[in-house]
Amino acid sequence: MSGPKQPPERDAGRMPRVKVLTTGGTIASRPRGADVVASDGPDELLTAVDVDGVAVQAEEIVRVGSYGIGDEELRRIARSAVVAAGANDGVVVTHGTDTMEETAFLTDLVHAGGTPIVFTGAQRHAGEADRDGPRNLNDAVRLAAHPGMRTAGVTICMAGNAWPARFATKAHTLAADAFAAPSSGPVAICHGGDVRVVARPDRPAGFALSVLDAPLPRVDVVSAYAGADGTLVRAAIEAGARGIVVAALGAGNVPPSMAKEIRAAVEVGIATVVTSRTGAGPVVPRYGGAGGGADLVRSGAILGGTLRPAHARLVLALALATAGSQAGVADLVARHG
């Protein structure tokens, strides 16, 4: 697939069209008894939109808390967003924050066009007096309609900051400004109805949208910790994983007994990508000895660069679904790492 394409120029004098796709999450949630559940649909969410000069329509894709999103929902949301981008000047996806970074990144990986796709949500539910959903939604609509965001790809907009999907992550469980991009920085800043674009992400060529036509290969994430052995690596293989992402220590190291099982996994054809559990910075083959990053590379493991574990899982799954060889898988991971 080629790199991002320029979207067609909008007809002079025509109001920009932004499609809002709703998927549930806290932004759509209200109290039900002692719990909070996704309740509001597109009509309710649209009542909060107040952006002059933009034509906004909404459509519901699914209505769930994002902790309930699995492979089928991931693929459906990403596909719906990319298809909507082909018929509008911008797309907004309202989404729960728990797995927003995964759906946004998957969407970016299959979005070849230049139409902005903006994910947004809320940290406070729709029944709270100080709810943040309306502001985030209005910021996202302005961002999606802004000409400076053309070819910026997919972003996550929360609390006035727009983060590139390639690097964005949820960094706080409850704070309104819950997202960050430690290995990057914001793409744009929204304040008082204004949008200021401050960066343009480097977007490598991604994957064809058709890769989402079938369930993605199983890829499991296994975390390293002091004294970790290979039990979880073996469990992933026994569960049917075709790939494993290791959330390694530091710059890409694991305990020696875990390294032994990683080597064994690679030897039986399980693609294994090494990332870091630290949250920022690349993995590098610096340290030798059993379990060091250099040792893992010699065993055949693939370094994931600056990919976070959850992001690397998606890249590896797409690579396994499209590449014809282990070398091809490694090349695709390297392209996005």
UniProtKB/TrEMBL annotation:
Ranges of residues in domain Asparaginase/glutaminase C-terminal: 218-328
EC number: 3.5.1.1
Ranges for domain L-asparaginase N-terminal: 17-201
Annotated positions binding substrate: 66, 97-98
Pfam families found in the cross-reference section: Asparaginase, Asparaginase_C
Active site, renumbered: 26, 97
GO biological process entries: asparagine metabolic process
Catalytic activity: L-asparagine + H2O = L-aspartate + NH4(+)
Keywords for the protein's UniProt record, in alphabetical order: Hydrolase
Domain of life: Bacteria
InterPro entries: AsnASE_II, Asp/glu_Ase-like_sf, Asparaginase/glutaminase-like, Asparaginase/glutaminase_AS1, Asparaginase/glutaminase_AS2, Asparaginase_C, L-asparaginase_C, L-asparaginase_N
Top-level class of the enzyme under EC nomenclature: hydrolase
Signal peptide: none
GO MF term (any one): asparaginase activity
Family: Belongs to the asparaginase 1 family.
Protein name: asparaginase
